[in-house]
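Self-study notes.
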Amino acid sequence: MTTEEKIPTLATPEMEAQKGVWGDERVAPPIEASDIRKWAIASYWPEKPPQLYWDEEYAAGTKYGAIITPHDFNPFAWPVERPPRVEGGSTQPGKRGMNGGQVETYGVPMRIGDVITSRTRLKGWNERTTSLGLTMFTETETEWRNQRGEHVKTRIGTGIRY
C-alpha cells in the first residue's frame, strides 16, 4: 500500500472529537413510591411483584431498610420532552445499523426520593470487514448516579454500523 492509499473507515472527524467526552447530563424527577410500584407491577405481570418493591413494612426489615426499585427501573422512561426522531433509513455505507447488545453493571439500588443524573459518552470503536462489508462496532457508555454521587448503574451499549 502506498502512502497515497487511504485505509477505508466509517469513523468520522466528529466521532474522533467526541471519543471519551461526556455529553450533557440529564436529571430525572425524584423517584416516587408509586413509580416503583407501577414499574414492578408491569415487570412482574401477571405475577405479584416482590414485596421489596411495594410493601414499606416488609422492606424495612430487609438489608435495604426501605423500598428499592427493580434493577431495570428507568426514571427517565416518561420524559415530558423527547428528542426529535430521525425518520427513515439509509442505504449508504456506515449509515445502516443495528443494536449489538448491552452490558449493565449495578451499584447502589435506587430508592424513593432519589434524583438520578445520567451522562453518556462514546467510549470507543473498532472496525473490521464482515460479511456485511466494512463494519464498525461502537461502544457507548452511560453512567447513572444518585444525588449523593453514588454509582447506580453503568451501561455499555454496542452499536453496529455497516
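Second protein, same conventions, sequence then structure:
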Amino acid sequence: MKDKHGWIRMVEAFLSILLIAIVLNIIINNQNIKTNDIPTGVYNYEIYMIKSVELNDTLRNNIISMSDSDLPSNWENSTFPGNVKDKIQNLTLGSLFCEAQICWTNSSCDFWQEIKSNIYTQRVFISSSYQNYNPKQLKLFCWPK
C-alpha cells in the first residue's frame, strides 16, 4: 500500500510542474504578441504619412525640384522643403518622434542622429512630375517618445 501512495505523489508533482510550465508559456507568448504589434502599427502609420506626401502634387514637386547639390537633405537642413516638414509634423502621432531625409535614389539614406531606442523607417521614391524627371528618395524615421 505504501508504494502506491509514493507513485501517486510523484505523478501529482509531475502534473503540477507541467501545469505551471504551460501557464508560464502562455503568459510569455502573450507578452511577445503584444510587443510585436507596436512595430506593425508604427510601420503602417509611417506608410500613411509618406503616402500623404507622395500623393500631394505640391509636395512632390517641391521634392523633385531640389537640386542634386542640396542632397542629402535631412530634417535640420535649410534645404529641406518646409511644407513637407510641416505635413509630416502635422501627421505625427503624439507618442512618436518623426524626422525625414531626402536623398538620391541609389543612396542608403542613413539616419544622422544617435537614438537609444528602436527606430522604424519607411521610404518612398518620388520619381517625376509632368515637367521634370529627377527622382529622389524620401525616408521617414520614427521612434517612440
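Instructor comment on the second fold: The beta strands are 73-74, 96-103, 120-128, 133-144.
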